Amino acid sequence: xxxxxxxxxxxxxxxxxxxxxxxxxxxxxxxxxxxxxxxxxxxxxxxxxxxxxxxxxxxxxxxxxxxxxxxxxxxxxxxxxxxxxxxxxxxxxxxxxxxxxxxxxxxxxxxxxxxxxxxxxxxxxxxxxxxxxxxxxxxxxxxxxxxxxxxxxxxxxxxxxxxxxxxxxxxxxxxxxxxxxxxxxxxxxxxxxxxxxxxxxxxxxxxxxxxxxxxxxx
Amino acid sequence: xxxxxxxxxxxxxxxxxxxxxxxxxxxxxxxxxxxxxxxxxxxxxxxxxxxxxxxxxxxxxxxxxxxxxxxxxxxxxxxxxxxxxxxxxxxxxxxxxxxxxxxxxxxxxxxxxxxxxxxxxxxxxxxxxxxxxxx
Amino acid sequence: xxxxxxxxxxxxxxxxxxxxxxxxxxxxxxxxxxxxxxxxxxxxxxxxxxxxxxxxxxxxxxxxxxxxxxxxxxxxxxxxxxxxxxxxxxxxxxxxxxxxxxxxxxxxxxxxxxxxxxxxxxxxxxxxxxxxxxxxxxxxxxxxxxxxxxxxxxxxxxxxxxxxxxxxxxxxxxxxxxxxxxxxxxxxxxxxxxxxxxxxxxxxxxxxxxxxxxxxxxxxxxxxxxxxxxxxxxxxxxxxxxxxxxxxxxxxxxxxxxxxxxxxxxxxxxxxxxxxxxxxxxxxxxxxxxxxxxxxxxxxxxxxxxxxxxxxxxxxxxxxxxxxxxxxxxxxxxxxxxxxxxxxxxxxxxxxxxxxxxxxxxxxxxxxxxxxxxxxxxxxxxxxxxxxxxxx
Lengths: 218, 135, 392
What we know:
The complex is a heterotrimer of chains A (218), B (135) and C (392). Chain A is α+β, with helices and mostly antiparallel strands. Chain A has helices at residues 36-46, 106-111, 138-142, 144-148, 155-166, 173-180, 194-198, 205-217; strands at 5-13, 22-30, 66-69, 72-75, 87-91, 98-100, 103-104, 121-122, 129-130. Chain A folds into 2 domains: 6-104, Ubiquitin-like (UB roll) (Roll); 107-217, Fumarate Reductase Iron-sulfur Protein, Chain B, domain 2 (Orthogonal Bundle), CATH 1.10.1060.10. Chain A has 8 helices and 9 strands. In chain A, the strands form 3 sheets. A 5-stranded mixed β-sheet of chain A has the order 2-1-5-3-4. Chain A is elongated. The N and C termini of chain A lie far apart (59 Å). By secondary structure, chain B is an all-alpha fold. Chain B is 67% helix and 0% strand. The radius of gyration of chain B is 20 Å and the shape is extended. With 392 residues, chain C is α+β, with helices and mostly antiparallel strands. Chain C has 9 helices and 20 strands. Chain C is elongated, with a radius of gyration of 21 Å. The chains are: A alpha+beta (218), B mainly alpha (135), C alpha+beta (392). Chains in contact: A-B, A-C.
């Protein structure tokens, strides 16, 4: 395949200085294994250094590079350019306030979580491993309930609560149950299942939310 | 950094609820979620339409002919089939949602959708044949 | 106790994070600027290895001792951010056996606990290992969450008054008459330029160190030395698996959540922003990794990427591996006659706290501030606390 292929990336832009949301288009040369993140960083390096975006680990482990590509939640670092068409639209994740360009306000994401400090090391399997959830926010972006309700805590927060019930690590079980037993928490889920489809860590938020509801119903 | 919260993207154009029916970026779960709500609202609206149409009969015996010509018109029969689809979808998907929402067969939510489709489709076809056949 | 001094740290990787934390605990005012997301340079991309120091026990004892000390400290101050299942150095081929004694002796000399295991014992612990292995040595390796560990330093620093500004790029340094007094910043959130003044500016930009140092008119001997890493779907081991031999490509597999990360390789570049991912290096990861764990060969690629190490050394080296891995603080008043500017560079992800202590000592000396380091004992806030409201 020729490496002088190009694709057009339509990228969402927003700077707080001028306040106007718009899309910029860039022609990006595409190589065989290029990811959407590679393309965005190429734009930063060669066309527009003011493009703000999040990334860190480049291998779907840190959860920072979540975006919507053609309306679908993906981690930009493992989303192949070749899997998309001639024109690719890249927007920030949905349902969270935008800081700038493709960067959303991560504080708002964590604000929905139960009070207990988030500890991701688990000993549930007999050895120590970091939990599946990488806090990427793709589930919250995909959730149709979160789209119309700012108060719904969202799949990731409910998964975190259910994990605290499974493995408390210092959390108070009654506090977690009380937090979950609200219309904007466990009862806010209306089974859209978009969260499970979007999750790049292959956790199944929907399953954990149902497990949480079973706990509450006991 | 500015204290004011920034804009929020959603998947549709216009009000956020349009994201439920966005053309791209939704899978089976999201589509059935949206359709469940649409059929739910449609059934409620139908209830009023139904009462409205029936109220034609309050006028008396003379209204019977008018009533029959309305409800046996091809367009109305087609509407009946759509209505039956809505009823079947909402009922069968409702069972799926009730099961999964109580924690049963969560991993099989997609399979349940197709089972519901397999049950509903012959029922719909049967109903459509009789709706149009009996006219 | 609060001091009047203000330090501007350029670079939001692990080094900058640990330094912001150390200085704010000593009561100095700290502003940190990072042009992108925090840890979006080299730090976020690294292997994720919590080093026992074993890899350096034979050839680079200074590094090995640094590693095991910091390994112990990190376990104490950041509980919950690691996978702590130890690691194995595995003798796969006959010639690896020649290395065992030197390895175990080296570990003992550096204070690294090392336990010899028979082939059967090793396979019981890690059933996916190549059944042809000869023996293994167990050391206290672990897995670090590469982004969230520094984020805990940032969270604690922020709580203690440090101002952390990601998406803020340094356009130029304010230099006049051999004195660096601050920086010109471009805020990518608003698109607006501004200035910040500081008593000391710290260059903590890793492989970008030369670029920032040039803004002050000085040079630092940093070679960006990238290596390829390969993340495979599937958790093929719980312990870190290392090849028991002199350093080579693809000789380590680090488990991380549901992935196994194989690495790494090494070459030298001029521009740390434009890193390629050579497919022959990726192929080498598959080939070498499958000598340790045969299942690597057929495992699905999740991602392959490059990360640039900041290696200190002369400009002559080609492959980058023989350069020393110790870290260094350059006080540019001493090295170049430029006041108010310090570069900290080199090192490994595991030694971030130790690097920061060294640098903070230098900074406090320069500012005539007498404050001890408190980072060895201070337990860090959880990573999510970074996003909670900053200190009043």
